Amino acid sequence: MTQPRQQDQEEQEAAQRPDQFFREIEIQFLIHELKDPIAIVETGLRTLLEKREKFGPLLPKQENTLKRTLRNTKKAREMLNNLLEIGRSESGCFVCSHFQPAKSLYQAMKDSLEIMTGPLSEAIGKYEAEKDAHELLIRNGIHLDIASRVSNTEIFQDEIKFRQIVGNLLKNALHHRREKLEVKMDIEDGIFSLTVSDDGPGVEPNHHEMIFKRYAQVKECAIVPRKGHGLGLAGALILAQCLGGDIKIVSEKGQGAAFWLTLPVSMKSE
User: Fold this and answer.
1) Contact call for residues 172 and 227 (beta carbons, < 8 A)
2) Coil, strand or helix: which one is 214?
3) pTM as predicted
4) Of 23, 187, 211, 215, which is most buried with the most CB atoms under 10 A?
5) Distances (CA, A) of 86 to 25, 89, 167, 210, 241
6) pLDDT at 245 (0 to 100)
7) Is the pLDDT reported for residue 76 higher than 80?
8) Fold of 98-264
9) 215 — alpha (psi -120 to 50), left (phi > 0) or beta?
10) Contact 189, 264 (CB under 8 A)
11) Which ranges constitute the DSSP H helices of the chain?
């Protein structure tokens, strides 16, 4: 009787080893280790695309393959950065500085578009001046409504986490919109607010809480079929709350969705 019991125990321990292994991994170390090879791949792809006089011309199929690979490399880097910042936030690690949220919004929009597919993704990377890029966005149904009192105003927050929050909200809206996307930004009574609205399929009220949970996805909401890791909105909410803010959703099924981010203009007294 002893031998079968011992065998059963060994089998149970063997079955638990994979989970135990992954629990014991230092996740932040793993993320750091993955970032370097991804950065090397991304640099190599950019070099092949941008220095054709050195490496020779590319056939259209070669260029499209390199661009698609570069976009997916950027997506991998974004996912790692999200995971890293969530871990840092939950452990109370912040780097606050003065920055202009209007400029950070523009950069987050540009970054979000560059990792997507389609002509707008190709075009946005060619515009350096914000004015020219804004005109391109308007022609493609994307409107940035920044209150005049915010356009040159600085806030005192963690800019890296701020851009990741905004980037996650923008990517979500870009994936779900049919034609339009609107971003409104304002500051009032010491509170910064940003609303990202789309004209997509919307979210039923009974799903509002679920979409902010890690790894949760509401499949019937997707206009553009996609695979995801389900950390976008959940990660944005975690980061916002760690910065003293919050994210709310206003949406009904079939009526689009609006995500409302609020943050204190100063995370802590200087």
Assistant:
1) no
2) coil
3) 0.71
4) 211
5) 17, 5, 14, 19, 11
6) 96
7) yes
8) Heat Shock Protein 90 (3.30.565)
9) left
10) no
11) 2-24, 27-50, 52-55, 60-90, 101-114, 119-124, 130-139, 148-151, 159-176, 232-242
The token pair at 180 is: 């339009």
- 183-219 pLDDT per residue, tens: 999 999 999 999 999 999 998 888 888 888 765 555 5
- Using the structure block, give the residue that is written with the tokens 């949220």: 101
**Which position has the token pair 């909105």?**
233
Q: What are phi and psi of 250, to 5 degrees?
A: -125, 115
With a CB cutoff of 8 Å and minimum separation 6, the contacts of 101 are: 150, 153, 155, 162, 185, 192, 194
Report d(CA 257, CA 81) in Å as an integer: 26
Structure tokens at 232: 């976008």
Q: Kindly write down the DSSP assignment for every residue of 87-129, as one continuous string.
A: HHHHTT----EEE-HHHHHHHHHHHHHHTS-SHHHHHHTT--S
